[in-house]
Design brief:
The chain is an all-alpha fold. The protein contains ten helices and no strands. The longest helix has 19 residues.
Amino acid sequence: MFFWFVGCSLVGVALVFSSPALDHRVVMVGALLPLTEIVFGEPRVLHSLAAPVAALVVVMLATRGQRLRRRWLLGIPIGLFMHLLLDGIWTDTQAFWWPVGGTAFSDARIPELARGRFNVVLELVGIGALVWASRAYGLDTTQARRTFARTGRLPRQSAEGL
């Protein structure tokens, strides 16, 4: 489960925020962070609403008066929120609302492991999202790809046109 989170978080955030200054690389990293909980086999803190909310609070408090650093770091909580949405973890009330309903973690399997072969379909959708984004945002040129790799920004004229 890599391309599903990377591709869909890129496209989803680009379409919703339409911000040419957002570093989409950081958003994609944030969307991948909860995958580290696969080692536990069940959802933990990063699969709860508490993680992106806490990350957002930390970023906002730690970057007072540092507009550029704040804009860059906001990609982490945005990516964490995207993971929760794309993962469907909101269907597991105990995991999603942890620790509101108690401090015990959900004993359900982590969604990435519970879906089994359907993960292949999701990965193909994620690859399709990356291909679509490449064409829609003009990343099919070498210069645009270099700029994206260096800054995480999508070409301004493409972002405004969608």
